Amino acid sequence: MTQIKAFSAVNETAPLSAATIERRLPKDNDVSINIEYCGICHTDIHQVRNEWGGSIYPMVPGHEITGIVAEVGAKVTKFKVGDRVGVGCFVDSCRTCTECKDGLEQYCSNGLVLTYNSTEHDGTPTMGGYSEKIVVNEDYVLRIPANLPLDAAAPLLCAGITLYSPLRHWGTGRGKKVAIIGLGGLGHIGVKIAHAMGAEVTVLSQSLKKKEEGLKLGADHYYATSDPETFTELQGRFDLIINTVSAALDWNLYLNLLKRDGALVVVGIPDTNIPVNAFPLVMGRKSVAGSLIGGIKETQEMLDFCGAHNIACDIELIPIQKVNEAYERVLKSDVKFRFVIDMATLKA
Amino acid sequence: MTQIKAFSAVNETAPLSAATIERRLPKDNDVSINIEYCGICHTDIHQVRNEWGGSIYPMVPGHEITGIVAEVGAKVTKFKVGDRVGVGCFVDSCRTCTECKDGLEQYCSNGLVLTYNSTEHDGTPTMGGYSEKIVVNEDYVLRIPANLPLDAAAPLLCAGITLYSPLRHWGTGRGKKVAIIGLGGLGHIGVKIAHAMGAEVTVLSQSLKKKEEGLKLGADHYYATSDPETFTELQGRFDLIINTVSAALDWNLYLNLLKRDGALVVVGIPDTNIPVNAFPLVMGRKSVAGSLIGGIKETQEMLDFCGAHNIACDIELIPIQKVNEAYERVLKSDVKFRFVIDMATLKA
Fold first, then answer.
1. Interchain pair A289, B288: CB under 8 A
2. Tens of pLDDT along B184-227?
3. Which residue in the set A266, A281, A289 is minimally distant from B290, CB to CB?
4. What is the pTM of this model?
5. Helix (H) or strand (E) segment spanning residue A202
6. pLDDT above 80 (res A55)
């Protein structure tokens, strides 16, 4: 085992603070990564504060990890020391179920091993990216394209794939009209990716406050959902609406904005049930669906796509000592558009 | 105009009774059909009783019509006198919108002309199949395969296509597992069609009362939804679940029965919103969707498919004088599996 520096939460009410944790030595198929950057995802806050129950403490959050390969196990073939790599929301899966065999490990039916707040197959609790180093089986490590900066690329590992996967799955491309509800960490990268895929992109945001940024990111249109006119004007407009907002919405209003065969896809889980009216579903063969991050193969495809289109996230880089403050700002949506922790500051 | 015999409702509380109505003389592209049979759809009852609002009286219901061509307009090319034909839920559409051009007239965005309780483009109220004759533009007339009896084929025009279309759209075939909720008029033909498409078919019914019939119709499995064990045993089992029941259900229980990428499709419209939990949607990329009958092209395809597989509905044939009694029995689900009116009895 190696002792390394990290920031951890000791219980659900404690702020994150400096700690020392242990990482295993690389096994034959493991890659040891010096973490350079880690994004802050809203999920980190939910889990640190045990808002979904079942949190494991001490907890080192973080699943938007980028860094440099420091060491490789004897049988590693995919990576070598010095490679620029990333780790996303999971670090292992069963590898045998239909989902794993289909390259959709995120839906693994025998227990996905999440990057933190989870346990390895041998029972060891997993610890995330707010730390110096992480040791991961090479099959769950991603390659970061050379032209993408490691800090701005970090949130692609969760926010990026969370939007890329449903955009691809529901056929986004030239001639398609896509709306993104919410222009936060998820929404802003969704706009960039959908635009790069060739779609006509509309942002549906509560207000027009971030309109200028939205258009700069690649949106063709920007509407305020606080204005009832929006829901009249945009009726029957979209092939796909992706909802990145967890707050309760009037879902049926949004279903009316879909074309025939359109889909409203949720990528977050609201606290309450979605009260869906069957009428718009039946009258236009519309659907309400969900999507969860993406598999390893698709995550690599997303990174390569972002490399080819020179897309990364718009971030605010912070020292790890400001992480608790950053959490408060995330809760107020006071960030454009994702916080990324500079892990060099862990050594300070 | 021609005066013909029919059964109509004069207001929302009156029983259906004998009446004389007028039909237009066939225009150049019209087909005049001597109606031999008409199925009774639950929709007929909803509309006769104005349960959805906006009903137009006097109303002659009926949109599961079969009969023989009696006369054709000067420019009719698709049909000739003596042909065995059918008319379904609509008799015209705008022909210019994307939906019409895509052959999905049922979703016509400029006003579908329903077979009854609707108005023609010239404002004339439409009158349905509980009548001697109907005059319909040839483009909205279907051909009934020679081997299908006209009485048992009648309910294919609504019930049949209502199930066939979503089964096809969501890829039913060999190797697929399909569940049908409810074994009524819709469910029973859904079982036959899904079975003929090669799928493994499961009926999910409140009780096991109709199990024997269900298996005879082609179901491979039959489960009672009143038994909580059903929802444990069938978890993650189905590619597609079609809900033919309008009553309120615990939708989230059914979502758990879907595989990854599975769809729960509603073909009826429940009175209340569907409270869907986003968790199963996100955790398995599942969807809740709707589907409405089918277009003319697909309805003909369905009829030809039923002809090729020798499939028609299991019906109880009644004289039109028993229609009000039949309505009461439909409301109690006391029919195996669809009432069809023998229109010869209209002359009695």
1. yes
2. 999 999 999 999 999 999 999 999 999 999 999 999 999 999 99
3. A281
4. 0.96
5. strand A200-205
6. yes
The domain spans of chain B are: 2-157+314-347, 160-290
8 Å CB contact between B301 and B169:
no
> In the predicted model, is pLDDT for residue A9 greater than 90?
yes
Long-range contacts of A1-7 (CB under 8 A, 24+ apart): A1/A25, A2/A133, A4/A131, A4/A132, A4/A133, A5/A131, A5/A132, A5/A346, A5/A347, A6/A60, A6/A127, A6/A130, A6/A131, A6/A132, A6/A346, A7/A60, A7/A130, A7/A131, A7/A320, A7/A323, A7/A346
For A176-198, write each residue's pLDDT tens digit. 999 999 999 999 999 999 999 99
Q: What span, in angstroms and rounded, lies between the C-alpha atoms of B24 and B3?
A: 9
Say if residues A163 and A193 touch (Cβ distance below 8 Å): yes
Q: Residues B253-306: pLDDT tens digits? A: 999 999 999 999 999 887 788 888 999 999 999 999 999 999 999 999 999 999
Q: Do A282 and B270 touch (CB under 8 A)?
A: no
Question: For B160-290, CATH number?
Answer: 3.40.50.720
Distances, alpha carbon A95 to alpha carbons A67, A109, A294, B47, B150, in Å: 25, 10, 15, 54, 54
The hierarchical CATH code for the domain B2-157+314-347 is: 3.90.180.10
Integer Cα distance of A113 and A119 in angstroms: 6
Angle between helices A185-196 and A296-308 (to 10 degrees): 70
For residue range B123-176, list pLDDT tens digits in order: 999 999 999 999 999 999 999 999 999 999 999 999 999 999 999 999 999 999
What is the reported pLDDT for B107? 97
Residue B8 bridge partners (DSSP): B17
Q: Are A276 and B273 a contacting pair, CB within 8 Å? A: yes
The answer to whether residue A137 scores a pLDDT higher than 90 is yes
DSSP codes, A39-80: E--HHHHHHHTTTTS---SSB-----EEEEEEEE-TT--S--
| A→B interface, C-beta within 8 Å | 98-99, 104, 107, 109, 169, 236, 252, 260, 263, 266-270, 273-292
Look up residue A96 and give its two tokens.
């045998």
Chain-chain contact of B278 with A269 (C-beta, under 8 angstroms): yes
Task: Answer whether A287 sits within 8 Å of B263, measured CB to CB.
Answer: yes
pLDDT mean over B86-111: 96
Q: Report ipTM for this prediction.
A: 0.95
DSSP-based three-state secondary structure for A299: helix
